[in-house]
Design a protein that fits this description.
By secondary structure, the chain is α/β, with parallel strands linked by helices. The chain has nine helices and twelve strands. A hairpin with a 2-residue loop joins strand 5 and strand 6.
Length: 375
């Protein structure tokens, strides 16, 4: 097992927050071909007449008894897939007029949550439940990092998150909901760990996504601080640090962390730049110019604060990405809200939904306008 040496243990533990652990509680709040449409599927009746019916397909099998319905426009499916161990929720938010306008098709936004988070984190960003688009929130794992892991025999079991999302969930949604299934009407957005995921997915599949937003994202794998955050989730240092603080009376007692310990090379391999050992890190680095060039036809937006130990690093990463996009002539928008005073009263420039909620409130109307302009 390879361990990354950072400048201090305290810095390493603080940077585990880059993955978004506990963020929902802050501030009040190798590809597999898709199943052809002609493949026989098993119909699953929805528990509410107002919720669309879904069927098994595209490598996904519905777990009927685990469907949760919060309302006719807010429900969560649970699926299994050969690409991942266990069961995985997919939360879906529909526009209010989805049922009353049966001939209308809708743009789709995929929201990728942070590390240690889950699909219910979207509740802390109400702007994402829009009457102008469908929002889909797929499970990203406690530390999935939106990647097909190099190691498939860890305590996490099968872990092909990128394949699950891009070759299964996207066509599954298009097959069952009235979507506008073209890149001009499809966006991927995410925060923290999901900020990396959104930028990486937009680069990996520019044919799918015409719009991308990364909020406080770990978007520069050239930074040791960002690589250290990934390793911290693999080793569950956030959970260990939380347990120490709670036993001393200084913590919240909620120490879910990032799930079971896994090898620190499990996701992207060795982080060390010796003998090309870190080739996977470099290949998927969202800040690499060769990857940024793939966004030439994509609407790119970055948000970050800079007022805590974590967003001080995401600010550096976001500014690096913005500068390189400028050098490539790729249009983009960066909002560095600093200490948060320019964004919202709930935002102090830190790594939490007190800033991310208002950031989405600023972004979503712009995204809706872009969808509308696409015709």
């Amino acid at each position: 097992m390879t361990f990354l040496r950072l400048t201090s243990l305290g810095a390493a533990l603080a940077l585990t927050a880059l993955t978004g652990v506990g963020a929902a509680h802050a501030a009040t709040p190798a590809a597999v071909p898709a199943t052809p449409a002609s493949t026989p599927v098993t119909s699953v009746s929805s528990p509410s007449a107002a919720v669309p019916d879904f069927s098994d397909g595209y490598g996904l099998s519905l777990v009927r008894e685990d469907t949760q319905v919060n309302g006719p426009t807010d429900f969560t499916l649970t699926v299994t897939t050969p690409q991942l161990s266990g069961k995985h929720p997919i939360r879906i938010l529909l526009p209010a007029a989805y049922d009353t306008e049966p001939d209308r098709r809708w743009p789709v936004t995929y929201f990728l949550h942070g590390g240690g988070g889950n699909v219910n984190d979207v509740g802390a960003a109400p702007a994402l439940h829009s009457d102008s688009m469908i929002t889909v929130v797929p499970d990203g794992g406690m530390k999935g990092w939106y990647a097909d892991w190099l190691m498939q025999n860890t305590a996490e079991g099968k872990a092909n998150w990128e394949t699950f999302h891009l070759t299964q969930v996207v066509p599954f949604i298009d097959a069952h909901l009235r979507t506008r299934a073209d890149r001009a009407h499809r966006a991927v957005v995410g925060l923290s760990m999901g900020g990396y995921g959104s930028l990486h997915y937009a680069q990996a599949r520019p044919d799918l996504f015409g719009h991308v937003a990364a909020l406080s994202g770990g978007v520069d794998f050239g930074m040791w601080e960002v690589r250290g955050a990934v390793l911290a989730t693999e080793l569950n240092l956030a959970g260990a640090w939380c347990a120490v603080r709670s036993s001393s009376g200084s913590g919240s007692g909620d120490c879910a962390g990032h799930g079971p310990y896994v090898d620190s090379d499990a996701i992207f391999g060795s982080p060390y730049p010796f003998f090309d050992a870190d080739r996977v890190w470099k290949a998927v680095d969202p800040a690499a110019p060769v990857n940024l060039a793939k966004l030439s036809r994509t609407g790119v937006t970055l948000y970050t604060g800079d007022n805590d130990v974590v967003d001080a690093q995401t600010a550096k990463a976001s500014h690096t990405v913005k500068a390189r996009l400028d050098q490539l002539g790729v249009p983009s928008r960066l909002v560095d809200y600093g200490d948060g005073t320019s964004l919202a009263p709930t935002c102090d420039g830190g790594h939490h939904y007190g800033c991310w909620g208002p950031a989405f409130a600023d972004y979503v109307p712009r995204l809706e306008a872009a969808f509308a302009a696409a015709g």
